Sequence to fold (163 residues):
Amino acid sequence: MQEGCRVIAILGNSGIGKTALACYLLQKIKTNFELVICLDLNLSPDLENTLKALILSTGNKTKNQLPSTLGEKLSILLSNLQKKRCLIVLDDVQTLLSEKQLAGNYRSQYRSYKKLFKIIGETVHTSCFIINSWESPQEIITLAGKNSPVRIFPLKPLGLAAS
Fold:
């Protein structure tokens, strides 16, 4: 909160507690935001549907007022994120990523998510995204750093005593 993070990626193995940690964090900081949105990407929605849900939740547009192009939708979402302080949790981001390839690469049908992650990490806004995943999308890895508004928090596997 104090460092103005726009994107926080919580990474770790399945079942380690990423979602539980995000829920705990959400309860602690939600009063600092006007709006809290949680989306589970486990069903691997295409970016168009995700953007539609985010725009309708964060702004004052109706379904019929949404533009047709991806660029226009991203622009509206970004404008909404600059006007209204939102906390957006994206769970199960790994479902967008390819298996058995270099880490952080997308499945072909979800490559357009690159644009979303790039724009929310690079552009100044007052909102915050929490991304839960087994691995980080490449854009997040590229933008992350100690003094950056994009951070990665890898969770280490629990020891035998914890189980």
In short: The first helix runs from residue 18 to 29. The domain at 7-154 is CATH 3.40.50.300 (Rossmann fold). The chain has five helices and five strands. The beta strands are 7-11, 35-40, 86-91, 128-133, 150-154.
